[in-house]
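FAQ: What does the model actually see?

It sees only this:
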Amino acid sequence: MTTIPPNQKPPRLTFRQRQHLKLGRQFQRVYNLRASAATDVLIIYAAPNSLAFSRLGLSVGRKHGNSVRRNRIKRLLRESFRLSPQSIPPGFDFVFVPRRFADTTLADLLILVPRLAADAARRAARKPPPV
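And it is asked to produce this:
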């Protein structure tokens, strides 16, 4: 475990509003590039953006249950994205779409999300932008 010198503040791992994908056209731009990585738990779509940081969009359908269950899934996905800033490639927009999420924990996602995000970003960087 690394220690932080007493005269230095620890880095803040916040999830700011500018890191959210909110508009339908932002989601559509990511989907149109068709660069993704997937497991049986999660699909991550990626598209490059012109920013120095990555942004996140979540798409959790009704098949995952009632609003309480869907919001819990969204909180877990946001938290895994927030806690992994150094492991997620900067300069990309990501859309997370859960598949089978029944017994997935935050610890599972902290391992899975950076790996899938890196794979999706690598695929997105190789593709030409959609016309």
